[in-house]
Design goal:
seven-stranded mixed β-sheet; 246 residues; globular; Spore Coat Polysaccharide Biosynthesis Protein SpsA, Chain A; alpha/beta; 39% helix
Length: 246
């Protein structure tokens, strides 16, 4: 089995963080929580728990904190890192399925897949996921079932050889950048079905802006494709006219 750590970036999620951490600890011994400049007492809410708590005073965004956590886990000898959000959107009870899949495919990026539960999603999220699946699958030259689920397992051997531009390690685009550059480095995408949990789980407004962030995502993937000759084989794969690596 992989030597697995869980990484939970948190920012003002006092209502859900403790429950998520406790549920995660039932499956993974080492849980790293990076408090990204919370002002609501999130860090204090878990200060008594047996977790690795890193408290930062500035809110720099999820991408920066994920990269920080990956670097820490790699230095400490973990082979894989499982990521999940602190707002309850990801179910820690799915962790055993992710761990088993990582053991079966140790070099792959293991991605949560909500495509079987799309009826539970807000309409704009469905459209955004379908758009992302098509364009990221095109750029990555392999099929992808859910390009935007944040519950994933990342191999640290892959992370340590990725060359992601510094500007892509900031904000929500980081998770997409890992897919693009990870696939370019030879990683396959392997999916684990998960539920789409929205109503009753997410306790704060989403920071995702549908138009602005859609344009940012489209711009990043488009530039990636242009610099690589538009990857016509990847387009055929995304259209279902050719087979990919998985």
């Amino acid at each position: 089995m992989p030597k697995l750590a869980a990484l939970i970036p948190a920012h003002n999620e006092i209502l859900t963080l403790r429950e998520v951490v406790l549920a995660t600890r039932r499956h993974i011994e080492t849980v790293i929580v990076i408090d990204d400049g919370s002002s609501d007492g999130s860090a204090e809410a878990i200060a008594d728990l047996d977790v690795r708590l890193i408290r930062e005073t500035q809110n720099l965004g999820k991408g920066v904190r994920l990269a920080q956590g990956f670097d820490l886990a790699a230095r400490e000898g973990f082979s894989h890192v499982l990521t999940l959000d602190a707002d309850g959107q990801h179910d820690p009870e799915d962790i055993p399925a992710f761990a088993a899949k990582a053991a079966e495919h140790p070099e792959a990026l293991i991605l949560g897949d909500r495509s079987g539960d799309m009826a539970q999603m807000p309409a704009r999220r469905k459209h955004g996921i379908r758009f992302g699946n098509f364009f990221i699958g095109w750029a990555s030259r392999q099929p992808i079932q859910d390009a935007q689920c944040g519950m994933r397992v990342y191999p640290m051997a892959l992370w340590q050889r990725l060359e992601i531009p510094k500007r892509r390690k900031q904000g929500f685009l980081f998770e997409t950048a890992v897919l693009l550059y990870g696939a370019e480095a030879g990683a396959r995408f392997v999916s684990v079905p998960v539920a789409a949990r929205y109503e009753g789980f997410v306790q704060r407004p989403s920071h995702f802006h549908p138009i602005r962030d859609f344009l940012k995502l489209f711009g990043m993937v488009t530039r990636f494709l242009i610099t690589r000759g538009l990857r016509p084989t990847g387009l055929l794969i995304a259209l279902g006219l050719a087979s990919g690596r998985n």
